Amino acid sequence: MKLLFFPFLHYNRAELRQRLAGKTVLLTGASYGIGEALAEALAPTQAHLLLVARTEAKLREVQQRVEAQGGVATVLPCNLAQRDQVQALAAQLAAWPNGIDLVVNNAGHSIRRSIFASLERMHDFERTMELNYYAPVQLLLALIPGLVARQGQIINISAINVLLLPPPHWAAYQASKTAFDQWLRCVGPELQRRGVKTSSIYLPLVRTRMILPTKAYRHMPAMQPHQVAALICRAIIAQRRTYTPWWILPAQLAALLLREPWEAWLGRRR
Q1: Do residues 210 and 108 lie in contact, with contact meaning Cβ atoms separated by under 8 Å?
Q2: Rounded to two decimals, what is the model's pTM?
Q3: Catalytic residues
């Protein structure tokens, strides 16, 4: 069943090395899960990896594994939910020697909570927007001139539910992920005209620590971080605008046709 929904993805490693040799790659959310797996996948390419996350000690571990494979990595600790830290990082990256060629926006924060348990938790909505929306926008506003000059690429790690019916209890997360998805889709054509490629990867469930607090997800089919890393490597090579599971079209059709009965059923649940 897992192979049916989440097949293993092959990519041409020689072509990936050719694409990234001598390039600089910015990877956010690099300390765990998808970011950690991607850093290791890119280590043999001879790209210079700029690893961004909040936990410096964990970033150092990832850096050591990259360097053990002969790769080059620089650790840039930053709490992307703190706008002053993002501003300082953006200034540092905008002045990076030789510029940045590829940005992988992977960092994210997920919250699952009923709206009735959130009435006094405005900070839930603020922190998801800070990390999932404002931080990547703030970084890219600083990096776009350099990306244009170097004909670079932006890859956004999005979520499949951005394209489907929004589920209950996920208001903070869904709103923030949709906000950046819409932002990148809006600026994408302008960037394309200036030679900057944009790719949005819409992921289903991924087996990372982000989903651990949700008990219902523990036994559901999910992608593994290394599978997502392979998908990102394919996106670096092919530079398609969107990547979705093969079953997205029937899922979107079902979402369109079944929205009213689905919401009515949810409304009757206690």
Answers
A1: yes
A2: 0.90
A3: 173
The domain 7-268 belongs to what CATH superfamily? NAD(P)-binding Rossmann-like Domain (3.40.50.720)
User: 99-116, pLDDT tens digit by residue?
Assistant: 999 999 999 988 889 999
Q: Where are the alpha helices (DSSP H) in the chain?
A: 2-5, 13-20, 33-42, 56-68, 83-94, 122-129, 135-149, 171-193, 225-238, 248-257, 259-268
Measured CA to CA, the distance from residue 201 to residue 182 in angstroms comes to 13
User: pLDDT tens digit string along 31-70?
Assistant: 999 999 999 999 999 899 999 999 999 999 999 999 999 9
Count of beta carbons in the 10 Å neighbourhood of residue 224: 17
**What's the sign of the alpha-carbon dihedral 210, 216, 218, 224?**
negative
The residues pairing with 104 across neighbouring beta strands, listed in sequence order, are 27, 155
- pLDDT tens for 181-196 read 999 999 999 999 999 9
- Indicate the Cα dihedral angle 15, 204, 8, 43, nearest 10°: 40
Q: Do 179 and 118 meet the contact criterion of CB atoms below 8 Å apart?
A: no
Q: Are strands 197-203 and 153-159 parallel, antiparallel or unpaired?
A: parallel
Arithmetic mean of pLDDT over the chain: 90
- CA 267, CA 136: separation in Å to the nearest integer? 35
Question: What is the pLDDT at residue 4?
Answer: 52
Alpha-carbon gap, residue 124 to 170, rounded angstroms: 11
